[in-house]
Amino acid sequence: MNFAKFGKISYVAETKLQEFEKHLETGKVMGTRCKSCGQTYFPPRADCNCLKGDIEWIELSGKCKLMTFSTLYFAPASFRYEVPYTLGVAQFEEGPAVLAPFSKEIKENEIKVGMSLRLVPTELIGGRMIYELRKADS
Amino acid sequence: MRKNIGYIFVFSILLALKNQLNPIGGRLLTRKPIVSIVSAGLSKFGKRRGLFGRELFVEATSEAFEKCPNLDPRKDIKAAFIGMMSESLEHQGHTGPTVLDWAGLLPIQAFRTEGACGSSATAIRCGIFAIRSGLADIVLVGGVEKMTHRNTADVTEYLAMACDFPFEQWNGLTFPGLFAMVATAHMHKYSTTEEQMALVAVKNHHHGALNPKAHMQKEVPLEKAMSSRVIAWPLKLYDCSLITDGASCLVLSKPELARKFTDTPVHIIGSGQASDTIGLYERKEFTSLKAGRLAAQEAYKMAGVEASTIDVAEVHDCFTIAEILAYEDLGFCKPGEGGPFIEEGQSHIGGSVAVCTSGGLKAKGHPVGATGTAQAYEIYLQLTGQAGKRQVKGAEIGLTHNVGGLGATGVVNIYSRE
Ligand SMILES: [Zn+2]
User: Fold this and answer.
1) Structural domain includes residue B234
2) Which end of chain B has fewer CB atoms surrounding its CB within 10 Å, N or C?
3) Dist CA A100 CA A114 (whole Å)
4) What per-residue confidence (pLDDT) applies to B163?
């Protein structure tokens, strides 16, 4: 079990955050929190910016609001067969924000800044684990 | 009366303490030279088929050295700082000694600086550090990137290495995509329009048409920009800068030595740099690039000038929305007023500040590692009256604003003619 399956593509599988991928596989959106200053991180970090605390894993609700988005019609070489696709940045109720792809269940003309969404762990064909933005009631 | 003298005494002490805190020279510098540009060179920008990156660099150094006959490059230059973003493009690392060798400059010590699209602005910063440290009186700073031999999808992938690998790149994120998300946020918060963004492209292509070294030297009408194909909504083809081959350099000296090499030195009088998160998702704000803003504050303070004093500026217009952000981050207008600022023609030659007279990254082109010193080259031309058809009459104070990636690196320099 390591970080090698996280993301549509990965370059380095070695990190202190290895259990993040395991949590996604069990359907959980897990971030980290600093035991010293209380800062919450998602995506997770193993070392807090305060340079002091140990971190602990915490489960996030996945409930978030869309802050901004774009639909891409031109992709890097590794993604050339996937266009067009829509990416957005959404802020969790718990504070931090995530950049993630939109699920195809949401049509482009339904996407509006400020809309409520939910970040959901998703397994791709071939076994890779990602998360994606879905409708709030999904 | 006695009381007043007391106040003046206390005030003088406070002022003296404040000046001690100033990072350079231990005193408050007001329009005082930090370092001087005694010569500058720029290769022709464009699709430069048939040339290695290092050969483009030789084009730039040849111009700089020819214009400065009193300089004996191998003897006088004590260090070189060369910006380059990606060794993937030419499959060549160890850039510093490589380009120096081909430019005939061995055995001068060489350093490569990397700050994504801000790589050579950080080279200028290193040159300033070297000269102000007293370890080198004369340095070469520059940058180079050879890009057009790769196809656009590959270049897009290499450039995307300047965004966050574990949590951004796997989405298929691109720099057009990132700046498109900045544009979406700016449109939502401030009602900025696609047409206002397109007007930045129209202006910079107009300037590019006046620059014989620009990659693209033709006008782009508003309708053409607006109707071009979508790259990453809301950004269209003409909102994006060009993938370009090019190189640029400056010869910097200690201000006291400048007159030995030229009668028309341009002085750097203020300089600032800051860093920000690499990931967009970790930013508190999407409608401003904080590192560029902080760099500007530092540079203005050091120079003792305000935004309203700037006559001519080269800003980081990698995408049209980025130039609109730059107007706001540099204080040319208030946050949110960048759209109206371009619409009113304030950033045109003849407006309140002439922005990107070279054509900018948009039309002159964006060979990423070369861009920072290429911006300084244009300001050098403007302040020495050599900018030809795009000359801003009477330009005295100039500014460059160069950011790396989505602004994780921000560098601002302020220039003055003698
Ligand atoms: Zn902490």
Assistant:
1) no
2) N
3) 15
4) 95
According to the model, what pLDDT value does residue A53 have?
A: 78
In this predicted structure, what is the pLDDT of residue A1?
A: 42
**B171–A87 CB contact, under 8 Å:** yes
Domain count, chain B: 1
User: By a Cβ cutoff of 8 Å, what residues of chain B touch chain A?
Assistant: 151-154, 156-157, 160, 165-174, 176-177, 180-185, 188, 229-235, 279-282, 286
The shortest C-alpha distance from A137 to chain B (Å) reads 23
Is the bond preceding A96 in cis, omega lying within 30 degrees of 0?
no
| Rounded mean pLDDT, B394-415 | 98
Site from B157, B194, B281, B288 to mutate, A interface, most A CB atoms within 10 angstroms? B281
Mean pLDDT, residues B267-280:
98
Q: With H, G, I as helix, E, B as strand and everything else as coil, classify residue A23.
A: helix
Q: Which stretches in chain A have pLDDT values below 70?
A: 1-2
Residue (of A47, A10, A50, A21) closest to A32 by Cα position: A47
Question: Cα angle vertex B106, ends B105, B110, to 5°?
Answer: 85
For B187-214, give the DSSP string: HHHH---HHHHHHHHHHHHHHHTT-TT-
Cis peptide before B212 (omega within 30 of 0): no
CA B141/CA B123 separation, integer angstroms: 6
> In CATH, what number is assigned to the domain containing residue B358?
3.40.47.10
- Please indicate whether, in this complex, the C-beta atoms of B174 and A74 are within 8 angstroms of each other: yes
B173 within domain boundaries = no
Two structure tokens written together for B251: 């010869």
Chain B interface mutation, best of A41, A64, A72, highest count of B Cβ atoms under 10 Å: A72
pLDDT higher than threshold 60 for residue B254: yes
Cβ of B184 within 8 Å of Cβ of A80? The answer is no
The string over B227-265, giving b where at least 16 C-beta atoms fall within 10 Å of a residue's C-beta and e elsewhere, is: ebebbbbbbbebbbbbbbbbbbbbbbbbbeebeebbeeb
Residue B216 covered by a domain: no
pLDDT at B17: 46
Please give the residue of chain B at the shortest CA–CA distance from A84. B232
What is the pLDDT of chain B when averaged over all its residues? 94
Task: Give a yes or no: residue B300 inside a domain.
Answer: yes
Which residues of B are part of the catalytic machinery? Answer: 117, 366
The per-residue pLDDT for range B146-170, each reduced to its tens digit, is 999 999 999 999 999 999 999 999 9
Range of the domain at B91: 35-150+241-417
Quick check: B171 and A80 CB within 8 A?
Answer: no
- Rounded Cα distance between B376 and B383, Å, is 10
Structure confidence at residue B418 (pLDDT): 86
